Amino acid sequence: MKKIAVFASGFGSNFEVIAAATESGQIEAEIALLVTDHADCYAVERAHNHHVEVFAFNPKSYPSKADFETEIVAQLRQRDVELIVLAGYMRLIGEVLLNAYPNKIVNIHPALLPAFPGKHAIEQAYNYGVKVFGITIHYVDAGMDTGKIIAQSCFTAKGDETVDEIETKIHALEHTLYPQVIQQLVIC
Ligand code: GRF
Fold this sequence. Notes:
Layout (H helix, E strand, L loop, with lengths): L1 E6 L5 H12 L4 E8 L5 H8 L4 E3 L8 H14 L2 E6 L8 H6 L4 E5 L11 H8 L3 E8 L9 E8 L6 H25 L1
Parallel strand pairs: 1-2, 1-4, 2-3, 4-5
Antiparallel strand pairs: 5-6, 6-7
Helix pairs in contact: 1-6
Bound molecules: 5-O-phosphono-beta-D-ribofuranosylamine.
């Protein structure tokens, strides 16, 4: 069984569906590790519920990104992790991880890239007045949400939704598409 790691910093709803998909067999892989920069985030509780090991680190206790990423790579290598799945990990990936896992790091973004990269993408798109909302799953490179696109999914807004309603629909798209794409990546 292939080993994957999920990186998350917050609520972890994507972690939850990925964990459930590994348990049901939809994803033919095991989550060997949850990596988080926030030891007290809800994703950690979810990992415990799914009996997934957690590596929580405090970036401030390392001299540099290269130092904490070196530690992360060691944690991943110890567990033979082959694919890194970012799911709400709120940090740019640096050279150490990119070099250790070339083309083996994927991310999900709650907008149709290349529009609205970075933080608060849903609010950015909503405030811009877009009519079509969507999500993007992409390989990770050194830029902010700039890597090669793997998959996208979208819906047309009715026009009277609140931003919270749009967000709910976007998360529903994420929760369907991310497990499907991860399975494709795991078996190829
Ligand atoms: C998702 O909207 C994802 O697209 C973005 O961060 C959010 C994470 O949500 N990268 P959750 O923590 O998985 O609930």
